[in-house]
Structures are given as structure tokens and as C-alpha cells.
Design goal:
With 151 residues, the protein is mainly α. The chain has seven helices and no strands. The protein folds into two domains: 2-91, Hypothetical Protein Yqey, Chain: A, domain1, CATH 1.10.1510; 100-150, Orthogonal Bundle (Arc Repressor Mutant, subunit A), CATH 1.10.10.
Length: 151
């Protein structure tokens, strides 16, 4: 389903001559192809599923946010803008992101469910969050909230 949306977005962008969108979607497709090749070497002939694609898109957004920060520190506003626009394009393939209140409620629920009591349980909590809310939440914010609740 997500693969189809990505390839359809590429076709649409090419037809409407949106060069920046075309290049960003091609980056997504290249990353997807790399992950598919890695999955095939592990015996998964069909490649990665939608949940792993969502995770890949999240990591692409995270990388770009870090780049934006670095470019802004380095005084390279034009490159920061380009990375920010790539983030916007990638986000179109993700489901609607949770707001802060919903994120906080989900973290609290998972912490209780996992019976987490200390920072040693953080990995278990984050694993459950990623399993249930892949693509729906910013895991860097979730990580900070988990750390806050467990300390």
C-alpha cells in the first residue's frame, strides 16, 4: 500500500515537473530498495513491510532534522531550507502524527502496561511504543518522556 503511494507520488511529481519532489521521492525509493535488498538476503523475498517502511521514513526525517540543525549552526540557510522541504515531502507518506497530549497518554499507558519502574526498562517501553505506534509518533519526543517518567 505504502509502496504504491510512493511510486504514484513519483509519477505525479514527474508529470507536474516538481523537480524537488521528484528527487526527494527518488531518495525514498532508493532507501526502500536498499532495505529490500537487505531483507532478501535474510530470506524475505518480498522485501520490507509497511511498518518497516514507516520506520525508514521516520529515520529519514530524523536525519534531515539533524542536518537542518547543523546547517543553521553553520549559517547555511539555503541548505537548511532544502532539508526542511524534504522533511515536508517525506511526512506526506506518514500517518497523522500524534499531538503532545496523545503522545504523553500513550507513553504513560505503555509504561504502566510494561510495568516499567526504572531506566533499565526504557528499551522494553520504547520497543512496545515502536511496535504499536510506528509512523504515528516522534520517537525522540517519546524517548524524552519515557526517560522523564522512569527517572
Amino acid at each position: 500500500m505504502l509502496r504504491t503511494r510512493i511510486s504514484d507520488a513519483l509519477k505525479t511529481a514527474m508529470k507536474s515537473k516538481q523537480t524537488h519532489t521528484v528527487s526527494t521521492v527518488r531518495l525514498i525509493m532508493a532507501a526502500l530498495k536498499d532495505r529490500d535488498i537487505a531483507a532478501r538476503s535474510k530470506g524475505n523475498a518480498e522485501g520490507i513491510g509497511d511498518d518497516e517502511i514507516l520506520s525508514m521514513l521516520q529515520s529519514m526525517i530524523k536525519q534531515r532534522r539533524e542536518s537542518v540543525e547543523m546547517y543553521e549552526k553553520g549559517g547555511r540557510a539555503e541548505l537548511a531550507e532544502q532539508e526542511a522541504s524534504e522533511i515536508e515531502i517525506i511526512q506526506t507518506f506518514l500517518p497523522e502524527q500524534m499531538d503532545d497530549a496523545a503522545l504523553s497518554a500513550a507513553v504513560t499507558e505503555i509504561v504502566k502496561e510494561a510495568e516499567a519502574t526504572s531506566l533499565k526498562d526504557m528499551g522494553k517501553v520504547m520497543g512496545l511504543l515502536k511496535e504499536r505506534y510506528a509512523g504515528e509518533m516522534d520517537f525522540s519526543k517519546a524517548s524524552a518522556q519515557v526517560k522523564n517518567q522512569l527517572s
